[in-house]
Structure formats: structure tokens, C-alpha cells
Amino acid sequence: MVATLIPPIEMDVIYERPTALSPVHTHYCPGCTHGIAHRLLAECLDELGLREQTVLIAPVGCSVFIYNYFEVDSCVAPHGRAPAVATGVKRVLPDRIVVTYQGDGDLVSIGAGEVLHAAARGERITTVFINNAVYGMTGGQMAPTTLPGQKTTSSPAGRDIRMTGNPIRMSEVIAQLGGAVYVVRRSLHDVANIRKAKKAILTALKVQMAGLGFSLVELLSTCPTNWGMSPPEAMEWVERHMVPVFPLGDFKVTDAVKDL
Amino acid sequence: MTSGTIVIDQERCKGCGLCPTVCPQHVIHLLDDQLNARGYHPAALVDPEGHCTGCGICAVICPDVCITVYREARAARRPVMA
Fold it and tell me: What is the pTM of this model?
């Protein structure tokens, strides 16, 4: 039995749980960076005062239960179709802030068409794209973002690019499309990068508030369970192996976004 | 001299071990001899000499949002996630 600590009330609270996050346990594995991404999004919604007007579109994948974890209105889309559902919600309720939260199996594989066309149409929605290079929920199979040579349950000898192709850098692809106005890649592997990721999510939400167009924030994430690593090892693996393949940076920031 | 402290919600903690790796003062440890209700070894602040500054770096990396950060009033000028 773990002893309960008494809060030191004589001190100022510097950081506490954001109110946009529900006070529940998440089902994520220990050390999964989905928790960090959830927290950053919740903090941004709190800071911008958007909690009451946000509609969150859940994907299929580990984050499918996101409606249990956020104190906002939400809706689950069929696999990969979150940008299509978000398009409908945003067009019917244009005063809402519509956010899709999708993994790489959802967004780059089965949902590649939906997100590309939503970006090309310049839908005024925000996508948070979690890239951890595997299909996490189904047991760590190879995804379109799996690194060359990376071992997964469906590529036990490592991804063979002659047989299965190369990883898709989706942010760079989406940045080519006219309707996308803010497309960046950040990482969640250390504290400095987590802070940069939060600023990117904040900017992406402001882009939508200003009605400028499609915004996407890709976050390099870990999957310690399916990678077969401890959480600190997985963080190091992101820095050492994923960042060279998926370089961090701003792929599209239009002048209107810079003026925000 | 303590200038800050943290409170870890140990029932929510999954013992992932990320906060001990980032703590600049090395005052967070996993309790290897204790289990919470979910069967994880929770993290704990082990800081008898009061080295914690309330910098909040542990709260930035915690995936389960179980850390609340406190700092003495006169030192509380810079928010953690500015």
C-alpha cells in the first residue's frame, strides 16, 4: 500500500493537471508518449479557452478511447476517416474548433487519401499526427512509417525496402498541398522537444481560430511495448534512429501564420 | 533549503521511469519495494535534504500527468510550460 502524500499548501502551484483532461486512468502502456501528447493538447485547449467549443475526432488505433480522456465533445471515425468526419463537423458547425488526433497507421496508411484531400481542400481543421513507426494497438506490425531495417512483428528480419518500400514522410507530402498552411514535425523524446511540440500545437490551434486553413503537427512518439524497450531506451531510440529519417522542422508556415 | 517540491499521484503512476532520468537534482526514484493498486512500482520524491527546486521538468515528461509541482512563493515567477 502506497502512502498518500499531503500537498504542501504553503507553496504556490507551479504545474497541475489541465482541466481539459478527464480525471481517469488511461489504458496506455507505461511510458507511452500518447500521454504526453494528450497533456500538451489539453494544456493548449485550456490556455486558449477552447474546451467548451472543441470537437475532438478520435481515430482507430491506441488513441481510439480519446473521448474518455478529454473533457470535450468527441466522435470516433472509422479507420483513417477522421479528416473526412472532421470536414463534415467543421462545415456544419463552423464556430467549433475541430481537432483530429491520428496515429501513423491511421493517417499514413488507410487514411492517407482522406488527409491529403482534406489538406488539399484547405479544410479549417487541425490534425495532431502521432508517428511511432509501428501499428501499436494491433501488436506492433510494420506501418508505412516503419524505418528501413526496423524489426516489427510482421518484419521480423527488419523492413526490407526492396519488398515493402520506404517510409512515407507524410508531413513533407502534405506541405506540398495548397490548402495546408501550417505543417510541422516535432518530437516528444525529451523535455526541450516536448516544449517545442506544445508551441506547435498552440500555433496550429490559433491557425484554425483565425480560419486560415489546414494545420498539421506531426509528433515523433515512442511505443516501448512493441519496440521491446524500456521507456527511457525508447526515448533515446527516437532521437538516434527516428529523427534522422523524419527530420524535425517546419515544412510549411505561410506568411499569414507567421503574422499570428 | 527547499525551494520547491512535487506531489506524485502514486495510484496514477505507471512506473515508466522517465521522471528519474530527467530530474536535474536526482531526487526522484522508483519504489522497488512497493506496489500501487495496479501493480506498478510508483515513482517517489526521495528528498530528505530538500534539493527539489520545483523546476517542473518531471511534470513535463510524465506521460500520465501524475505530478503536481509546487514552488515557494517568492521563487514562483516563471511558469513551467511558458
Answer: 0.92
Beta strands at A126-131 and A73-76: parallel, antiparallel or unpaired: unpaired
Of B62, B65, B59, B64, nearest to B80 (Cα)? B59
- Give the CATH number of domain A34-151+168-258: 3.40.50.970
Please name which of A11, A104, A101, A97 lies closest in space to residue A63, comparing C-alpha atoms. A101
CA angle A142, A79, A54 (to 5 degrees): 120
| Nearest CA-CA distance, residue A47 and chain B, Å | 11
Q: Which fold has domain B4-71?
A: Alpha-Beta Plaits (3.30.70)
Domain map (residue ranges) of chain A: 34-151+168-258
Q: What is the pLDDT of residues A199-211, one digit of tens each?
A: 999 999 999 999 9
Pairing of strands B4-8, B67-71: antiparallel
A21 has a chain B CB within 8 A of its CB: yes
